[in-house]
């Protein structure tokens, strides 16, 4: 019964963004004002949907459309990393969904009215699965910065959105990956909602020569950590 | 991370049994908002968890719809939200992680529309055990986990949806932990023919009971 998961550890609040963040205007009318009720973890929280590539096909190269008509514009990059829990356990065969703006900083989305060109060869969405060791990898275009009206002259740093599932629904997470050396990072209210500097910087990918492919593309590494399991109560070792 | 593992392992003195001290301790990554363009990973068919089963629904499965409107603190509909549900099958079972990928699973994703409305088609879940730490007979009332992501939500919001009229609602440990006056924000009402409705309020009057999961 060693695989019975009783629950997951609660995060240190400094390592996670608060729901109410005045610098990020959209939180004003959207954050709960009542205190959150702490939910004990039950099988609803310790189980998770099972996704397989058979039903949820991979889309690991965002730079070409399925019909292969042409190449996306911009700087091709390879992004890879490892998905683990806080104890370093690989999260195996997990579905990783990503979405992003194109090289010009425009999303292929009807709500995005930024006056930058759409790329007919770039949809900006991908889906891959981690392997036995928790590794994932995909090929894309380095996304451009875009304006977002949160405050005067507000620009989002380059980023890729990530959606992740673990082995329990309590591990569900959506986050963003940033790029090293981006001058917009210190100015970005969303990135800076995470008060712990080290936690914030773990959202920044690193240039990785091993992921880089000669004559093809630069590589960026982005490791992602999901919540770890609570220590298993000792009564598991007792036998009546 | 691989390098960190290696160096931690080589630093550990060999006579020490594996313990908390020598285990790799990482810190969970920070959540960030899904933003307004998450629809790039929206697949409207995911709102119907029965889509793989045509005419051979799991035994005892009662097809239901769950609809509701999401509103913000001003009462305005939230038209760019991502709503997810996760619930047990009609027998109260969850996949065990090594399970059959073709079996029913109660996972759905739905975008709110221009009125802030979501709509799921699924099977009504059965009662679920409280868990390995409680007695084998301790059951939770039928319920769904609900996760809500949106622009302006730096982490997703979580709540549960219960079904009005279930006898187990009276003893459900999560519902009982909620002040009685606010329980109704988590209990869907029947609208006939298997239709259930529950509105979600992010903030303000009738604010949904949101949970730290
Ligand atoms: Fe974005």
From TrEMBL, chain A:
Keyword annotations for this protein, in alphabetical order, are: Dioxygenase, Oxidoreductase
Q: What class of enzyme is it?
A: oxidoreductase
Enzyme nomenclature, EC number? 1.13.11.3
PROSITE patterns for the chain = INTRADIOL_DIOXYGENAS
Q: Which domain of life is it from?
A: Bacteria
Annotated stretches, region: Disordered? 1-29
One of the record's GO molecular function terms: protocatechuate 3,4-dioxygenase activity
Biological process (GO) annotations?
3,4-dihydroxybenzoate catabolic process
The Intradiol ring-cleavage dioxygenases domain extends over: 79-107
Give the InterPro entries listed for this entry.
Intradiol_dOase_C, Intradiol_dOase_core, Intradiol_RC_Dioxygenase, PCDO_beta_N, Protocat_dOase_b
Q: Name one Pfam family in it.
A: Dioxygenase_C
Q: Which family does it belong to?
A: Belongs to the intradiol ring-cleavage dioxygenase family.
What is the protein name stated in its UniProt record?
Protocatechuate 3,4-dioxygenase beta subunit
Automatic annotation (TrEMBL), chain B:
Family to which the UniProt record says this protein belongs:
Belongs to the intradiol ring-cleavage dioxygenase family.
The organism sits in which domain of life? Bacteria
Positions of the region Disordered? 1-21
Q: List, as start-end ranges, the regions of compositional bias called Polar residues.
A: 1-13
Q: Name one GO molecular function term.
A: protocatechuate 3,4-dioxygenase activity
Pfam hit, one: Dioxygenase_C
Name of the molecule in the record:
Protocatechuate 3,4-dioxygenase alpha subunit
Against NCBIfam families, the record matches this protein to: protocat_alph (TIGR02423)
Task: List, alphabetically, the InterPro entries matched.
Answer: Intradiol_dOase_C, Intradiol_dOase_core, Intradiol_RC_Dioxygenase, Protocat_dOase_a
Class of enzymatic activity (EC top level): oxidoreductase
Q: What is its EC number?
A: 1.13.11.3
Q: Kindly indicate whether the keyword Oxidoreductase belongs to this entry.
A: yes
Describe the location of the Intradiol ring-cleavage dioxygenases domain by residue ranges. Answer: 66-94
Sorted UniProt keywords: Dioxygenase, Oxidoreductase
């Amino acid at each position: 019964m060693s695989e019975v998961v009783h629950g997951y550890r609660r995060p240190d609040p400094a390592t996670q963004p608060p729901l109410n963040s005045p610098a990020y205007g959209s939180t004003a009318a959207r954050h709960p004002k009542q205190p959150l009720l702490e939910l004990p973890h039950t099988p609803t929280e310790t189980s998770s949907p099972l996704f397989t590539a058979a039903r949820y096909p991979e889309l690991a190269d965002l730079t070409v459309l399925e019909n292969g008509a042409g190449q996306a514009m911009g700087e091709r990059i390879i992004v890879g990393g490892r998905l683990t829990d806080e104890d370093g356990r690989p999260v195996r065969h997990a579905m990783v969904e990503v979405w992003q703006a194109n090289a010009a900083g425009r999303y292929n989305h009807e709500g995005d009215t930024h006056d930058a060109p759409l790329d007919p060869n770039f949809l900006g969405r991908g889906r891959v699965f981690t392997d036995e060791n928790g590794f994932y990898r995909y090929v894309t275009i380095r996304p451009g910065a875009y304006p977002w009206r949160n405050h005067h002259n507000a620009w989002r740093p380059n980023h890729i959105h990530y959606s992740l599932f673990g082995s329990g629904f309590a591990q569900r997470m959506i986050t963003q990956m940033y790029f090293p050396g981006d001058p917009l990072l210190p100015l970005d209210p969303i990135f800076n909602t995470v008060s712990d500097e080290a936690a914030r910087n773990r959202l920044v990918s690193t240039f990785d020569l091993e992921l880089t492919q000669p004559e093809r593309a630069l590589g960026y590494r982005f490791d992602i950590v999901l919540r770890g399991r609570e220590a298993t109560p000792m009564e598991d070792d007792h036998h009546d | 991370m691989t390098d960190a593992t290696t160096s931690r392992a080589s630093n550990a003195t060999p006579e020490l049994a594996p313990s908390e001290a020598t285990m790799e301790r990482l810190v969970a990554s920070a959540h960030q908002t899904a933003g307004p363009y998450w629809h790039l990973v929206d697949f409207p068919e995911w709102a119907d968890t029965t889509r793989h089963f045509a005419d051979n629904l799991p035994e005892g499965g009662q097809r239901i719809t769950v609809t509701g409107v999401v509103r913000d603190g001003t009462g305005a509909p939230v038209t760019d939200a991502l709503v997810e549900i996760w619930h047990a099958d009609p027998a109260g079972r969850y996949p065990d992680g090594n399970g059959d990928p073709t079996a029913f699973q109660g996972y759905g994703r739905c975008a709110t529309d221009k009125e802030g409305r979501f709509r799921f088609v699924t099977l009504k879940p059965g009662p679920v055990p409280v868990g390995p730490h409680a007695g084998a007979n301790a059951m939770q009332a039928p319920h769904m986990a609900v996760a809500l992501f949106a622009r302006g939500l730096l982490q997703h919001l979580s709540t549960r949806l219960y079904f009005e009229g279930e006898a187990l609602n009276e003893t459900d440990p999560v519902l009982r932990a909620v002040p009685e006056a606010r329980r109704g924000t988590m209990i869907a009402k029947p609208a006939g023919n298997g239709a259930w409705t529950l509105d979600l309020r992010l903030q303000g009057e009738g604010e949904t009971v949101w949970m730290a999961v």
